[in-house]
Amino acid sequence: MQAHDWIAILDYGSQYSQLIARRIREQHVYSELMRFDTPASTLAARKPAGIILSGGPSSVFEPNAPLGDPRLFELGVPVLGICYGMQMTAKLLGGTVKPGHSREYGHANIRVSAADALFRGLPHDVDVWMSHGDQVVNMPPGFQAVAGTTACPVAAMADAHRRIYGLQFHPEVAHTPRGTDILRHFVFDVCGCKGDWQMAQFIRESIAEIRRRVGDQHVVCGLSGGVDSSVVAVLLHQAIGAQLHCIFVDNGLLRHGEAEQVEQTFGDAFGLDLHVSHAQDLFLGRLKGVTDPEAKRKSIGSTFIEVFANEARKMGEARFLAQGTLYPDVIESFSPIGGPSATIKSHHNVGGLPPDLKFELIEPVRELFKDEVRELGRELGIPAAIIDRQPFPGPGMAVRILGEVTAERVAVLQQADLRVQEEMAKLPNYRDIWQSFAVLLPIQTVGVMGDSRTYENVVALRVVESRDGMTADWFHVPYDTLARTSNRIINEVRGVNRVVFDISSKPPATIEWE
Ligand code: XMP
DSSP state, 240? Predict the structure, then answer.
């Protein structure tokens, strides 16, 4: 996909590998993670402007340490080894590495001792973040030490002639405050990148690639109304128009007004060939009497596949299935410690389709991060209401209705949830909220309304901040917002007489209640 210059990052398993890609893309230079053992010939064919060897948890002393193809140093392309990547460079080019005693770990202050392209314009003392005990003691021929500390004399090395560099520390993390400058120097000054990678260009290239691959065939795309599938559908539609067929399954467990919004936005406004399956009754029928959270998820998952497969069969001759697989889902497979897991992950969304439905996958945003997908969506003209939408679980309201899921209880929760959404959206820092929603509890409590006693449902508010959904903290919602939300739910939603606020973090609690 690269008509422009780009940087290849070989991934040796560091938790920061993705960050390197991010930092470089932020400079408008495309970058991509590749397997740690990508052959030099493959790299040569794709003509990167530079190669970065990431860090990793291994030690070059381990018998099975992941090693790159030594011929990559002979391509004439600049190489930057970071941490483990530096130690491996030293080892492959004839230097020596000393096993570490973790003396330099965490914050360190290195002293720059020689003029060097990467450190140009930086002060003599630079704060950096180290995360590896091993260190280079004898540099390979042609290298000189550029920066170091007493305990780690070779914290940076360079062979300016061959344009091969090594850093013992991590320039990509925030704990190395001038790290972005160092990466910029590598990418622009050493590799000569222009920094002209833009979303508009990504769109043009994707469209050309999709057209080339699809030809006159047809593509099926599951549209959920979430960000990823919406962006994929609109991008494909721009590429192949009427050859795209979208399936939207209304399972009756969506947020208030969501199904209508999807139909209006994608069917009417964008003009997609949208097949809506109104399967509320089927889903709710299968959920009758089911109260166990796992049983609910299983029931909804298998019903979804059944409904989707039935719709897809109607599209007879479609050869491709489009998916909104994102970059973080795919890159684990490149890492020597990730194993084959990502191969499974990148397919798990289709997992379970019956064997008579054999699709080739088409994953047009598999090279993008979530916020890049949002940027792409904005560029494609998708409304902010969809692009900025909070994550919503596949099983929908079913995992927010504790106990049995019935049409009546879904209606109560949708109404309560609508009030939560409306009130939270008024907060100036609404964008700091990861998810905000209502949960319907399976108990009644006593209340009083006018002169009479009530015995009705309890709704819990769940509002959290999070970076990725893996961990989360409860969001400190201002008291007056809490008060207004509670009043509105109790006064406006029939069947609710009490509202409580969930103040648990994840872990040990989860974001969803089921
Ligand atoms: P938990 O509740 O495990 O949720 O803290 C973490 C994030 O994942 C979302 N979630 C799901 N998303 N299908 C999905 O597509 C699911 O079954 C599912 N369960 C939880 C949840 O909303 C939160 O963002």
Answer: H
Q: What band does 351 get if pLDDT is binned at 50, 70 and 90?
A: low
The answer to whether 170 is a known catalytic residue is yes
Question: Is residue 379 classed as helix, strand or coil in its secondary structure?
Answer: helix
Same domain? 268 vs 152: no
Measured CA to CA, the distance from residue 428 to residue 431 in angstroms comes to 8
pLDDT score of 469: 83
CA 393 / ligand 1 centre spacing (Å): 5
Catalytic residue chosen out of the listed positions 32, 172, 367, 456: 172
Which mutation among 400, 466, 506, 511 tests ligand 1's pocket best, with the greatest number of atoms within 8 A of CB? 511
Q: In this model, does residue 369 exceed pLDDT 70?
A: yes
Q: Catalytic residue among 170, 185, 245, 256, which?
A: 170
Task: Give the CATH number for residue 167.
Answer: 3.40.50.880
The CATH number of residue 313's host domain is 3.40.50.620
pTM of the predicted model, to two decimals? 0.77
pLDDT digits (tens, 9 = 90+) for 173-205: 989 999 999 999 999 999 999 998 888 888 998
Q: Region 420-445: what's the mean pLDDT?
A: 97
Residue 514 lies in a domain: no
Q: Which of 474, 510, 512, 513 to mutate to test the pocket of ligand 1 (most atoms within 8 A of CB)?
A: 512
What residues does ligand 1 touch, defined as CB less than 6 Å away?
Answer: 297, 391, 393-395, 435, 469, 506, 510-512
Rounded-to-integer distance, Cα 179 and Cα 80, Å? 13
Query: CA 254 to CA 400: how far, in whole Å?
Result: 11
Q: Which atom of ligand 1 is nearest to the CA of 391?
A: 24
List the one residue out of 130, 78, 71, 81 whose CA is nearest residue 105. 130
Reported as a single tens digit per residue, the pLDDT across 290-299 is 999 999 999 9
Nearest residue by C-alpha to atom 18 in ligand 1? 393
- What spacing in Å lies between the alpha carbon of 471 and ligand 1's midpoint? 12
The ligand 1 atom nearest the CA atom of 470: 6
**AA identity, residue 426:** K
Of the pLDDT bands very low, low, confident and very high (cuts 50, 70, 90), residue 344 is very low
Count of the separate structural domains present in the chain? 3
Summarised one tens digit per residue, pLDDT across range 59-88 is 999 998 999 999 999 999 999 999 999 999
Statement to judge: residues 42 and 179 lie in one domain? yes
What residue numbers bound the domain in which 329 lies? 199-387
Is the CB of residue 413 less than 8 Å from the CB of residue 426? Answer: no
Q: In this structure, what CATH number is given to the domain that contains residue 434?
A: 3.30.300.10
CB atoms within 10 A of CB 227: 24
Atom 11, ligand 1: residue with shortest CA distance:
393
Residue nearest to atom 3 of ligand 1 (CA): 510
Inside any domain, residue 393 = no
